[in-house]
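Quick illustration, no need to memorize.
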Amino acid sequence: MTEKTIRREDARLLTGRGRYTADWNLPGQLHAYFLRSDRPHAEMISIEANSAAARPGVHAVLTGSDYAASGWKSLPGGVTYEGVGGQKMKKPFWPALAQGKVLYVGQPVALVVADSLAAAQDAAEDIELEYHDLPHTIGFDAATQTGTPQLHQDVPGNLAFAYETGDAAAVQAAFAGAALKSRLTMRSQRLVGNPIEPRAFLAEFDRGSGVFTVYSPSQGVNGMRGFIAAATGLPGEKIRVITEQVGGSFGIRSYSYAEHIAVMLAAQKLGRPVKWVATRSEIFLSDNQGRGLTLTGELALDRDGNFLALRFEDAADLGAFATPFGAQIGSRNITVTMGGVYRIPAMYAHTRIAYSNAVPVSAYRGAGRPDIACAIERLVDHAAAEHGFEPIALRRKNFVPPEAMPYKTANGTTYDCGEFERVMDKALLLADWKGFPVRREESKRKGKLRGIGVATFLEISAPGLAPKDQAHARFDKSGDLHVYTVSQSGGQGHETAFARIVREGLGFTDGRADEHLKFHEGDPDLAIVGNGTGGSRSLYGAGSAVKLLAPKLVETAKPHAAAVLGTESSAVEYRGGAFHALGKSIGFFEMAQKLAGGSPHPMDCVAEGTFGATFPNGCHIAEVEIDPETGVVDVVNYATVDDIGNVVDRTSVEGQVHGGVLQGVGQALAEHAVYDRETGQLLAGSFMDYPMPRADWVRAIHCDEHPVPTKSNALGAKGVGESGTSGAIGATMNAILNAVRPAGVADLDMPVTPARLWRALRDAPTRPS
């Protein structure tokens, strides 16, 4: 199942026939505009909205007092598991509209609802706000300094949580006796997700039933419904979520935002649909940001280069409030795979999480796994350079071997399967590693620096929160098969992959079944148990349920086929898309059409299963050329070999890897949500100030796979959505450092902008010639 295909959804999306949230319009709808805080930290002395509310066409102006009067809850977030010493995470109340004070630039303060967006925006200019500015703090280090401004009354020192994992005493003993030690700090800067589709939300409230129908981009309607229910206190059955097309998610679309809840409150108060569509400027100020992590790792080795112990001291900047995933990323997500692909006898990690006056942080492609993968791979390269080991040989010496699988790490994570050395060897060939010295000399003759970097990484695919994943099969009156799951594509190609799984499972090796097969992600009127999209789990979770659906369909249909063929079910054989018995046959869809008309259709059924976490891994190799006169980095070649288990559709896999690699390269070279520490303002608030990665940043990407199927799900798949990013950050950074280390530059922070690199080379002990 690995040849390239034409994806089913592409023609629809490329010709503008996909329906996104902003495309939905309801009769009688009103339009919403948010007035946002223009300062990072201040008490709200007063807010006067009478003049705004009196403007023609304005139907309501909602503020924090309206939200308080509603009795609705705090926006959900934080973690429930215990931290150091059994401590619970400190999570302050988070209102949809600011109450009492504002805590970051961009926080929603008031919502204006009017006949048109222009009228709402004009009315917002009439809202009078009086603030008393308070000292602010930007970044983890500033937020946790002695005497720093306190953001929340019940969070002294702004420290929300401290977490640890592993054996501190064993690690300390190993370091005490180690012949060699290396230490490295990696700062993973804040990023803005910037999906191609800006966030939007449309809410309608039915007073008779008390049911909300909401339209929103999401990563699965179940998750969105759950978060909305938590924020409003409403039962889930009172919330219908509709998501069709989603133009990019990357984790930041995985839960409800303050704007969603405020728009719902307005729709309830007014009894009319209310629609809000964000501008790109609002995206910068209000979408959850990613990363915001600092990881300091130490590696202990013996004289032969065998790894003895690994420890991390980490820090996570949550922003002003705790999203559902921010604290998890800064604690469990960056420690669950902290050993990477290596056999390390002792490990320990300690991480602290703090609030600061910035946009809240949540999941962003990889949700901490690319960060720890990069930190490990940079630390291994750093140790190799510091102690005179060849970086490939050092890795080879310390890989977890296949015969050790399943392998339990020193902090309790069990890897199911993997062949890390074989993956690396395949990548070395694909990248022509042995030919690099010749290419480096060619670059030197042109006055350029050339470097090559490797990242052998491992991540965990999300286990999911739902108890199981289901796939529902429903036949319409024409006998066509409709398959339903609750995963949600944001561009990954779910429809192509899932339809192919069903088609091949039913024995159709050509396109005969395509016109009779429809695929749906989330139906507000069909209760499906399952996990949304996130953590590289859609294929192995929802896809495995779809895999189990094919034999379930056949078994459900067999008694009916037997009746048609005049025999017993046990005598019916299914092959090649048809039922056979007594020298006669009837096709699968012919059978479905014959039984069509009634409701439910006799062949309707549900398949389900519980599928455990698994561990995608890979080896990425980046090759860069640097102009020392300008500091410009050119990624001249990139090779990827990924073990993502069994591959269903290579076209979608390559698309996922290409996109992930570019996002990783974007972080390494350019992207940075920069805040001015003096004013607390976001300086990178538009595409004029925030460079997005471009396709021509990487001249060539050569992709291959080394599948080691897992037994933890029905497909033997491991997930690919985050692999590109998990490998790209470390590979790109190691390549850059490989190029500049001969000049005396031993370390660089991301992003490695031309100015930052030019300055480092200018100040280096050995100026490049």
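The chain has a mean pLDDT of 95.
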